[in-house]
Structure formats: C-alpha cells, structure tokens
Amino acid sequence: MENLKFTLVIPSLNPDEKLACVVTSALEAGIEDILLVDDGSLPEKRRFFTELEEAHPEVTLLTHVKNQGKGAALKTAFRYFLEHRGNSCGVVTADGDGQHRAEDIIACAEAMIEDGAVVLGCRDFGQENVPPKSRFGNQMTSLIFRLFFGMQLSDTQTGLRAIPAQYVPVLIDAEGTRYEYETNMLLLMGERHIPYKEVKIETLYYDDNKASHFRPVRDSVRVYGLIIKYAATSLASALVDLLAFYLLGRFLFTGGDRLAVLLSTVVARLISSTVNFGVNKQFVFENRSGVARTFVRYICLAVPVMLASWLAVYGLSRLGGEGIGQLVRTLIKIPVDTLLFLISFRVQRRWVFAKEGQVGGTTYEEQR
C-alpha cells in the first residue's frame, strides 16, 4: 500500500450499520483516504456519517442538504478530489451497502496504477445469490452497450470503479445527477477512447438487494433515455417509411423491378427522413449546432443507408423468384432496416449530431 495512494469515494443515502463496516474494513486494509458523501439523508440517519468522521481522521465527510442523486454525490466527491488531492493517483468509487470488499477495492486500485486505465470491478451474474432483477438488468444493459455503442462490458452497473486522476476532469462532465450518470460515464469513456479494463470481484448481495435506492421504472428511463428516445423516433419513422414504401410500390412504382424498388425506397425515405432529422436533432441528441452542417452530415449518412436498404431488399426479394409481391418485399425490408438502424444510431451519435469538439470520438490525449 506504500505506493498505492488513492482516494476511496463512498456516496450513501440513508445508510445503516453496513456503512460503518465498509469504512472500518477499508481502514483495516490500509486505505488512508476516504471521502464519504451524505446525499441528503434523513436526520436520524446522519449519525452514521458523523460518527465515522469523528472517529477516523482518514475520513472526510461531504454533505448534500437535500437528496440530489448518486451521480451528483459522485460529482461532489470528484470536485473535492480535484481541489484537495493533487498528489493522489486516482479515485475508487464503492457502494456503502457492503457489496464491495476491501480486498476488491484494493485490487481495482492496483490494476488502475499498473495499467493507467479505468478499472471496473465486475461481478459474476451467473451465481445463484444474484437477484433475478439484477441479473436481467445487467444482461439487458450489456446487450444494449454491445449493439448500440460497440462496448464489451460484462457489468455495466457496477459501482466499484477505479479512475486514474488524469481522467477525473473528463468523466466529471458526463451528464446526469442520478443513476444515469454512471451509465453516461461509460459512454463518455467510449467516446473519448479512455482505456478501461475489467477485474473480477466477489458478488455480494444482502437481503435480495432491498437496500438499493434504484427505482426500476423512473431510473431505468433515465439510464436508457437516449436509446428509448432514439428507438421511439426511429420506430415512428420506420412505420412511415414502410407504409410509404408499400403504397408507392403498390400503386405508383409497380412491377417490382430494380428501378421500381429503388424509386419506392428513395421517395419513402425522403418522406420519413425529413421528419426523423428534425426530431433527432432537437429531441434525441439535443444538438444545437447549425442546421446546415448537421443536415449535410445526415444526408451523407442517409444516402448510403438508403442504397444499402434498396440493394439488400431487391437482392433478397430476387431470391424468391419473379412472382414475389410487394407485401413480401416490405416484410424483407424489416430485418434489413433493423440492422441499418443499429449502424445508423452509432454514426448519428458519434458524427452527425456529435457536440462540438467530440466529432469522431476525440481521444482524451487529443483534448489535453
């Protein structure tokens, strides 16, 4: 532990005796700097924080008068770290409910120092003691990260994260003040090409994880907000596109030959893309850049996607023979456009509607 100078950050809301166990075990393991964040706990719960601060000089207590959310608590600790811990190697975040052992905290810190990367303490969700809702939630989020963002993560919801000091100023700017902040932190790591690795940790749950303050519906909407909005607008645009494609091929560009399918595809896509561009710019990606710049990029993406859809639909429909109808061609178009939907999301987020200074996923080193 001599060369392992890091700051342990523990945000908590309305804790019980387990918080004292977490702090005590960390101190016994040799951790010398702990930032506790009281995120607006009830008056009768505040003693768990003050008793630890008074008993241990290694503990610094930061307090929110009102509950602001886990993300806000982490940001408060990160700001304090940047202002007062200039000689620290980095921060390690952990939960105050006993899910993270001191040994695992130190293991993540050691990996952070050795590799200079963000280290994620990953649980084994295949174990029997994992609550079903936690297993399902992580599997779903991991799948979303892989499909939409191209990131391979086995535990997207872990609260045990070791962050080198040089990356704290970057990750503190991730959006959100509640549980979505931890998700957005991972997305920002992908955007800025911040290196990360996973370290296996022991999987601990107490009383079926009932102590968690995660609100399944409200917080899930926050966590998946970007994807939900994109999926909703894309689904609406896809329905318009499919309906227009069917009607155009049925009544205007008939015959099913290459030109007819192309014209149906082009006109249908023009109709749906006009609406999709405006909604995605303002509502989904909340892009405030000039319309001309983003529209040119959108067209540069939309045209290849449209041509890919036409070629795939026409080619696959030809496999069915000359007598294939417009309804079948429309059904073929559904899986084709689903795949293109995933590809388009990545490009729109990282290039078309990227915020200024983030086009192409600027690396952390390029920003410095």
Write up what this structure looks like:
The structure is a single chain. The chain has 368 residues and is an alpha/beta fold. The chain folds into two domains: 7-213, Spore Coat Polysaccharide Biosynthesis Protein SpsA, Chain A, CATH 3.90.550.10; 226-352, no CATH class. 56% of the residues lie in helices and 10% in strands. It has 13 helices and seven strands. The chain has a seven-stranded mixed beta sheet with strand order 3-2-1-4-6-5-7, with helices on both faces. The longest helix is centred in the middle third of the chain and has 28 residues, at 225-252. The chain starts with 6 loop residues before the first strand and ends with a helix. The model is unreliable at 359-368 (pLDDT under 50).
In a few lines, what is going on in this structure?
This protein has about 375 residues and is an alpha/beta fold. The protein contains 13 helices and 7 strands.
